[in-house]
Write a sequence for this structure.
DNA sequence: ACAAAAGTGTTACCGTTACACCCATGC
DNA sequence: GCATGGGTGTAACGGTAACACTTTTGT
């Protein structure tokens, strides 16, 4: 990176359309699958390719609002976590930039979301263009969306280790095994021994026993816990690790 | 950016100018100050306020290139670390949006940079509009730049704890005290005992003794170490903590 | 009764913390 | 020789990892 005191004629400021693309994850705890929401593109560019659900930002609409709008156009869901991921904006990342004589750049602000799988219903207007797709078999996506997915998956793993986003997406009352399954599905089988995971979580003190039990087939019934926001708030900004 | 099935009257897609704003940190190890680069705005909006150095993205220029360009317009520096920080884009964050009848949004993609203070020379064209400012006494900045600074400072502390960016900015050969001072200046006095910091770092094995010593006034001369890229690469993706 | 699921306990080990202490140099 | 800065050692503590074990249910 040098020190160019650019005196030469500088190229004019670019005009942008700004898109928001969402990496929306959910965990199918029944079948132990980590899912990502994809839509099939009806039109060019990349017609019939899958892509991340996205939209162009409209007038007097914030980025986050646009992200929520995209989400609510594709799925109905109450419980979710959403945050900004990364902004991709190299020239040439969208073929539409070259359609006109005058350059019109497309910038993508990506958002990361985690939603509750069980109470999510896809909005598929009779066509099957919006689908959950297992992360393990993501096809070639439109634009640079494969890269965005990778980035989002990294973020998901980090968030899971250092912050309590799982509880935004688990049911109100859950068993410690539910929680463990959730973590296992995202982080892989050997992320931690169940007994140690259990001990760590309980020691942290923000999971309170509801007193209720649930029996799933054979075996001892499991205690139902719930996430205690207040108890958790006390641990704020303490290095919190679920490993 | 896809296929919105919206049948209601939807507001039209917004047109954006995209700015890049840099949060540029440096550490003045002599005087133990954490510094941030600010520029005084010559024109409205926010004339005579300090702001982050920034620029509008030009045609066929990538975001990162724009970030590097801004940097090189303000300072001459060889050794630095740079990464994207966050994107701010709510409507109304730039007063210029309301100048014309037709809405013209301003989006800010912020970048985080850490540069070597000692070999940085400010490019101040005879006016003193570009200055290092101690982080402890940041004034009211233009736009939403105070928020961006806060965000950048958080990132700096995190990066310092989990990644080796300090070595991008320290001299080739440095003493363990140099390193410790650096960390102390950024993270605060009580982030760790020197002897423990030292033991941890040396145990990690990517600091190699150059054999050289340096004497600074009275006291035992200090060994000069250097950062061993190769040794560090082996530890990649292992949870690396300097605390 | 026995398999299955949930939950508890134990032990060896390693990293962290908070110090006290030793070493080499300038003045 | 003593202050100054650099460097080493250590003992208490607490968390982690791996594993064995006990408890409670369904069939």
């Amino acid at each position: 990176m040098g020190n160019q005191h650019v005196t030469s004629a500088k190229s004019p400021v670019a005009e942008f359309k700004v898109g928001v693309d969402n990496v929306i994850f959910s965990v199918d705890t029944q079948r132990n699958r980590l899912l990502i929401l994809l839509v099939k593109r009806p039109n060019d560019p990349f017609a019939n390719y899958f892509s991340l659900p996205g939209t162009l930002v409209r007038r007097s609409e914030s980025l986050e609002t646009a992200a929520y709008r995209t989400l609510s156009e594709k799925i109905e869901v109450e419980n979710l976590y959403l945050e900004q991921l990364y902004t991709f904006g190299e020239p040439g990342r969208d073929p539409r930039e070259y359609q006109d004589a005058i350059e019109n750049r497309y910038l993508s602000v990506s958002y990361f979301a985690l939603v509750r799988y069980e109470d999510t219903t896809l909005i598929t207007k009779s066509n099957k263009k919006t689908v959950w797709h297992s992360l393990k078999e993501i096809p070639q996506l439109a634009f640079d969306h494969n890269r965005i997915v990778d980035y989002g998956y990294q973020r998901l793993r980090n968030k899971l280790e250092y912050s309590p986003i799982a509880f935004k997406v688990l049911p109100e009352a859950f068993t410690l095994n539910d929680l463990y399954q959730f973590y296992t599905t995202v982080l892989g089988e050997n992320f931690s021994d169940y007994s140690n995971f259990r001990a760590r979580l309980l020691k942290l003190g923000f999971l309170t026993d509801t007193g209720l039990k649930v029996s799933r087939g054979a075996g001892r019934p499991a205690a139902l816990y719930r996430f205690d926001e207040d108890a958790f708030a006390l641990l704020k900004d303490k290095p919190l690790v679920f490993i």
